[in-house]
Input
Amino acid sequence: MRKSFFAGAAIVAALLASFPAFAGDISISNAWSKESIGRVPNGAVFFTIENAGAEDRIIGATSSLADKTELHTHIMDGNVMKMRQVDGGVEVPAHGAVAFKPGSYHVMLIGLHDPLKAGQHIALTLQFEKAGDVPVDAEVLTLDEASKMASHGAMKMDMKQGMKPDMKGAMDHSGGMGKMKN
Ligand SMILES: [Cu+2]
Output
C-alpha cells in the first residue's frame, strides 16, 4: 500500500518535470484595445507580459482582424514622438514583465477589416522565441475607458516633456497611415 503510494507520487513528479518549462512561463494579462471612431483603418492592442521562467523574446504577432499585425514602439526623435515597427522583437526578462502600453510598445493592427466596437473581444496570437504562440483575448474599451488606461504609465512622462502637434498625430492610432511618422 505504502509502497504503491510512493511509486505513484514518483510518476506524477516525473510527469510534471517532463512538461516543457517554457510554454507555461509566459502569461498575458490586462489586454485591451480601443473602439474605432468611424471607419478608421488602424487599431492598437496593449497588454502586460509576465514571464515566470527564463529569458524569452516576443518576436511577432498575428491576427485575422487586419491586413497586417505588427509589433510597434514609440521613440523620441528630438522632441518628436514617432511610431516604429520593432526590429528583432522585445526581450522579456527572466522572472520579469514587459508592459505594452500607450506611448510605448503596442501591437498595431493595420488595415482593420471591421471597426472595433466597445465591449467586443478580439483574438490575436503573440509569437515568442521560446514559448511559441500565445493566444490573447483583448477587450475593446470605449474611448473614455481607454483614456483612463492610457493615463497610467508612460504617457505621464511624455506629457511632462510637452505634447507637440506632431506627437499627437503619431500617437493617435485612429489617424490613419498618413499621419504616422515612420
Ligand atoms: Cu503603431
In short: Residues 31 and 151 are 16 Å apart (CA to CA).
